Amino acid sequence: MKALPKKLLPLILFAVAVTSLFSVRPAQAFTVTLEQVGANVVATGSGAFNLMGLTFASGGFSASGGIGPSIANLVVADGTGLSRYTGFSGPSSFGPGITIVSDSSDSGDSVGIIGAGGFFPGPGIFLPAGYVSGTALSDSSTYNSATFASLGVTPGTYTWTWGDGADQRFTLQIGPVPGPTVPDGGSTVSLLGFALLGLAVLQRKLPSLRGWKS
């Protein structure tokens, strides 16, 4: 095999660098948003879980949709035969409400979390029996004639993490996300700008490559 021309090597390295910017994929995550919708509060969940880093603790749990802020307890949609996983870290509460309030109606895949210890069955993430990592889940719960205050929740972002570098997460967003958000974190856009600038400089130095064809 012939060695690559020295002038072509920098261009290949540049292409590899640009490709790597778009090959980074976000870690799997499940997010529940709690919103005031008219006279009701609605919880909507979607996403997937990566079980790597979590430990299966026990199975056979049944749960009804409900919320208990003082122990970081949230169940979106009724479920039976749920499996409990441990090995995560995060907040032990998301509001002062000490009463567990049942939802008025729900639908979808049952997903739950208890963030605090001292309460049966203890801290855990609860998922459908036989759940396979990466499988998409979606669900919703509605609390009729309710407000954040009546449910005892405090608006904000609450995140429970696990896995290498704590890159897997379960997020509860109560109320609107504060401030503007930039898709893809914004850093990729900046890096791409530098990459394009580098290509322009490289083309000026290697004019013969502009019309290169295979």
Write up this protein.
By secondary structure, this protein is α+β, with helices and mostly antiparallel strands. The chain has a domain at 29-177. The protein has helices at residues 9-23, 148-151, 187-205, and strands spanning 29-37, 40-47, 55-63, 66-68, 73-76, 79-86, 101-102, 105-108, 111-114, 124-127, 137-143, 156-162, 168-174. The strands form two sheets. A seven-stranded antiparallel β-sheet has the order 3-6-10-9-5-4-7, with no helix packed on it. α1 packs antiparallel against α3. The radius of gyration is 24 Å and the shape is globular.
Describe what is shown at a glance.
With 214 residues, the chain is of the alpha+beta class.
SSE inventory with pairings:
Layout: H1 9-23, E1 29-37, E2 40-47, E3 55-63, E4 66-68, E5 73-76, E6 79-86, E7 101-102, E8 105-108, E9 111-114, E10 124-127, E11 137-143, H2 148-151, E12 156-162, E13 168-174, H3 187-205
Helix pairs in contact: 1-3
